[in-house]
Every structure is written in C-alpha cells, then in structure tokens.
Amino acid sequence: KSMVTVRCVSKGVDWFNNEYEAIKVTSGVIVADNGSELIILVSLDKIQEANSIKVTFFNAVEAEGVLQSYDTDLNIAAIAVKLKDIPEQNRKDIKPAILGESFALVVGTPVIALGNPNGYVGSMELGMITSKGNNAYITDNKVELFNTDINDNKNADGVIINLKGEVIGIITKVLKDEVNENVNTVIGISRIKKIIESLVNNKERVYFGIKGMDMTTEALEKVGITNGVSVTEVKPD
Rounded to whole angstroms, how far apart are CA atoms 29 and 115? Predict the structure, then answer.
C-alpha cells in the first residue's frame, strides 16, 4: 500500500521539427504524509526531464505529482502529491512506508525487492543479502552498500524490505561496481535517513563540497594524526 507507479511524460522537438512525447514508467515508495501532501521517493533519472508526472496508487487512484527536491549523488528524487487530489474515501488505505535500519544486517538475511527490481513495473523478487560492508563516498558523506542475489538489469530500481515490511535499502545504479554487475546493489537506509528527511521537508541543504575517504592507519601515522579524512575531490560551486 506504500508502493506507487509513476508515469513521466517528456515533450520535445526532433531534428526535423516534429514534436514528440517520451514516456517513462517507474515505481516509487511513499515515505511521508505531512497532512497536505504525500511525498514519494523515485529514481531521479526517470523523472528529471518530465513535463508531467502521474502517480497511480495501489487502489488505481491517479493524481498529479510535482518534483519537489532531489539528490544527484544518490539518484533519488522526492515528488509531492496533494492529498486533496485523492478522493477522501481512498486516502485511508494509502500509507507511508516504514523506514527500518540497515546497520545490523547480516549476510543470509532474507529480503523482498519491490518496485521494478527485475525491470518490470510492479514486480517483486525474493532473495537474501549476499554481501555487505562496502561503502561509497559521495559529496560530504559516506553511504553503506549491500548486495543481494536478486538479478539486476538496466531498468531495475525500487526498494528492499525486510520480513517486517520495513524499507532497509534503495536499489542503486549509480553506485554499482563491475564486480556486482548482474545482481542488485543496494544503499543501506540508515545512513541516508537524514538526506531523505531533507528531501521530504524540502529543506535547503548546505554543502562543504568535498569527496573524501577514511584514512588508513598507515596514512594517519605518516602525517602524525589520530583521525582524519583524505580529500579525493573538490566539488565546484
């Protein structure tokens, strides 16, 4: 009841001055209800050029969505749907998902993938966590990654939930590596909750503007410090 289908229409003109429409369909997950709007997380690359966004809920109710905010490092966006655009008798069954914890996950934990994990919108896959402990360094932050044994393809995205129905991760394309090319790579939910909160509340975010890495013990000893971050990239503007 927290999953939705998102249909995005982009309009343009081709080289021969013919107008065209490009349609992308993906899945999203409702993460908040602020009393006037439902906030839905989707993959940014699926909606960023859209001229119109239509959201279809599990009960077939359809409403207009508006891009609210986004994070390019994580390739996630928040879209807002006004509650007044959903018939009152249909609202009570539409519920935001519960965000769980990913810190304590262990290899072998059974999981469920929802959204379009196999490339088909509204699909579901069952699997388990096959590896964890990898990190990805993004602007001003480090996120945790884990992998499942669920097959992956270029159209796959969605969320990973545990057997309690809590969201514990978001399937990612942008932070994948070639080692895990054919299986789902997932961003653990715990370290990105603050980012999701800022997207949901449409807060202006402040950036320091670097990408860094944890320093090794040898590197720390070499420069005579006990703790630190090695700056690998400075982000312009």
Answer: 8
SS3 (DSSP) at 45: helix
Q: Do 143 and 175 contact (CB within 8 A), yes or no? A: yes
Q: What residues are paired with 19 via a beta bridge?
A: 13
- For the whole model, what pTM was predicted? 0.90
Q: Across-strand partners of 52?
A: 9
What is the number of other CB atoms lying within 10 angstroms of the CB of residue 83?
16
Task: Name the helix (H) or strand (E) containing 125.
Answer: strand 123-138
Query: In this structure, are residues 38 and 68 in contact, taking their beta carbons and an 8 Å threshold?
Result: no
Q: Alpha-carbon distance 61 to 152, whole Å?
A: 29
Token pair 């299986």: residue? 183
C-alpha dist (Å) from residue 132 to 62, 74, 168, 188, 205? 38, 18, 13, 9, 29
Place of tokens 């690998």: 232
Check: CB of residue 181 under 8 Å from CB of residue 172.
Answer: no
Three-state SS at 41 = strand
Choice between 183 and 66, residue whose per-residue pLDDT is larger = 66
Mean pLDDT, range 75-92, rounded to an integer = 94
d(Cα 113, Cα 115) in Å, to the nearest integer?
7
